[in-house]
Amino acid sequence: MRVLVGGGSGFVGRELTRLLRDKGHEVTVISRQPGPGKITWSELESNGLPPCEGAVNLAGENLMNPLRWWNESYKKDLFSSRIDTTKALSQAIAASPSPPHSWVLVSGVACYKPSLTAQYTEDSEWTPFDLLSKLVREWEAAAQLPEDTAKSTRQVVIRPGAVLGRDGGAMKQMMLPFWLGLGGTLGSGRQPFPWIHVSDLAGIIAHSLEPAADAPRPSPQVLNGVAPALNTNYEFTKELGRILRRPTIFPVPGFVMNTLMGSERAVVLTQGQKVIPKRTLESGFQFKYPDLTSALTQIVGS
Ligand code: NDP
């Protein structure tokens, strides 16, 4: 299968590319920069969709970019980098004389309202309640294909929690303070911490790209990209400290996180949602890292 991966040069994209190539598939990355095995977003817009059987979008300005202050220009980039690239791909798919059989968008769990008690599956109803949930609504809407294309292309939206892996995402920024014995819970620590190992997220994307036995449907199939273990920030912190054999006695109060990161962004760490991968499990996907111990042991040992 030939697969086009928007943002395929990033943390999740590199893992996905490795997995797809190992399975014998051909990958072309869509990037802002030209290079071998890549096309640029402007080439996609001017030349149309290259021949492919699967398409994925992973592009987006990093929400946890430590080098950027939380201001209007950053927020604008978070929106446009996701929505414009997703629209460019869905429009190219719709305009293609031979559209791919699968189109996968990776969005996020920020659509579910943080709560200490509520549990969310893919069937949970939601309406935007803050900046990030508004982003998810617009992002997922940008992926929607017109009705006639949706008859031949299966649309899938995967909503991951924090993606854990050695080479990027939250772990890359957390490893050093934890190694130095400066790790601790964030906020109260009681908030849920939905997470997934990067290898499992790549696996769910690859699984979604496979041609399905059932006919494509007009609205996208949603899959929660989270490990089935429901953990809190406290459990995550203690387990990482235990595996690294380091103390985790320096909690970071919520107001410090809000000041450093901006409260609209800090919410992804200081609050959280209990997210259940109900349809992901029903689809037959088997997690390699279903619990924190197996995931963190692999990451720390790698
Ligand atoms: P990365 O931060 O690694 O970025 C992916 C790619 O996006 C980059 O390699 C880059 O490709 C492209 N990109 C970055 N900034 C911009 C920009 N301003 N405009 C256009 N393209 C840009 O992302 P991840 O791999 O960590 O995540 C993939 C997707 O999953 C993202 O959309 C993210 O929001 C979502 N997600 C990630 C989570 C995580 O914990 N990592 C959690 C939940 C959701 P290039 O330089 O080649 O153009």
From TrEMBL:
Pfam name, any one: Epimerase
Start and end residues of each NAD-dependent epimerase/dehydratase domain: 3-213
InterPro entries to which the protein is assigned, alphabetical: DUF1731, Epimerase_deHydtase, NAD(P)-bd_dom_sf, SDR39U1
UniProt cross-references to SUPFAM superfamilies, sorted A to Z: NAD(P)-binding Rossmann-fold domains
Annotated ranges, domain DUF1731: 252-299
Designated name of the protein: Short chain dehydrogenase/reductase family 39U, member 1
